[in-house]
Automatic annotation (TrEMBL):
<protein>
    <recommendedName>
        <fullName>MHYT domain-containing protein</fullName>
    </recommendedName>
</protein>
<feature type="domain" description="MHYT">
    <location>
        <begin position="10"/>
        <end position="199"/>
    </location>
</feature>
<keyword id="KW-0472">Membrane</keyword>
<dbReference type="Pfam" id="PF03707">
    <property type="entry name" value="MHYT"/>
</dbReference>
<keyword id="KW-0812">Transmembrane</keyword>
<feature type="transmembrane region" description="Helical">
    <location>
        <begin position="12"/>
        <end position="34"/>
    </location>
</feature>
<feature type="transmembrane region" description="Helical">
    <location>
        <begin position="46"/>
        <end position="70"/>
    </location>
</feature>
<dbReference type="InterPro" id="IPR005330">
    <property type="entry name" value="MHYT_dom"/>
</dbReference>
<feature type="transmembrane region" description="Helical">
    <location>
        <begin position="111"/>
        <end position="130"/>
    </location>
</feature>
<feature type="transmembrane region" description="Helical">
    <location>
        <begin position="215"/>
        <end position="236"/>
    </location>
</feature>
<feature type="region of interest" description="Disordered">
    <location>
        <begin position="248"/>
        <end position="287"/>
    </location>
</feature>
<feature type="transmembrane region" description="Helical">
    <location>
        <begin position="82"/>
        <end position="104"/>
    </location>
</feature>
<feature type="transmembrane region" description="Helical">
    <location>
        <begin position="171"/>
        <end position="195"/>
    </location>
</feature>
<feature type="transmembrane region" description="Helical">
    <location>
        <begin position="142"/>
        <end position="164"/>
    </location>
</feature>
<keyword id="KW-1133">Transmembrane helix</keyword>
Amino acid sequence: MQGTVDGFSYGLVTPLAAYLMACLGGALGLRCTTRSMLVTRSWRPGWLALGSAAIGSGIWTMHFIAMMGFSVQETPVRYDRLTTFASLGVAIVMVGIGIFIVGYKGASGTALFTGGTITGLGIASMHYLGMAGMRLNGKLEYNTFTVSASVVIAVVAAIAALWAAGQVRGFMWSVGASLVMGLAVSGMHYTGMAALNVHLHGSASTPAGDSPATLLAPLMVGPLAFLLLAGVVVMFDPLMVMGKPDWSPAEQKPGIPAHTVRHTGRRTVPGQRRSSRRPGSRTPQNW
């Protein structure tokens, strides 16, 4: 017997809230990635780690906000705590690998393709691992073609987002990139959900695991608090919003205007001529 799946039990409330969380995580993660490319190497790992955690937390929170609106009419839905936690860890680790590749190798060519592919696969892995944590009186089956489409959406979105992090410097451009990334992540989620079919076992017993209200709502408090903290760090970092580089006296970095680097050579004082006399020559002086 096939179950009746409803992914919009609360109407548009859960899709809109999920989309906003994906945009928030994407915006913070992209700004941190952009910032990492404008600072010295000693600060770069910290910004990349913060960006990885922001994107991972954002897409994980987005997924489970959307899952709050998921239901199967013929059976209650429960969640395994360990698998749900593992999906968050997978998201942060795999997104982090992709972001670190782009942060150190640059947002172009092979590095961009490799980093974006790993990041996109991390997003897809988080989704399907989170789905594997569901417990109900039935079996989940997926349409292979639709699942493949959802993975392609995730990879393309990740590549585009990381490219934007390396190329876009203005605040409004970054906002636009995060909105597109949020739309792509949400599209990947609901494309993956469209691939799902539930075949019921016929048993009326309550499946093992925690209900969405007792597990998902408390679990989302931590990632939400982290995203707010990351937002505060980004907002109060000097020159963060405009994406301008730090003044660096020791390193001339590509893409940074020359006036931000101190020149150690002697400068000519205005009004003072540079002497061109050769040794032994005498120049008349007017007193």
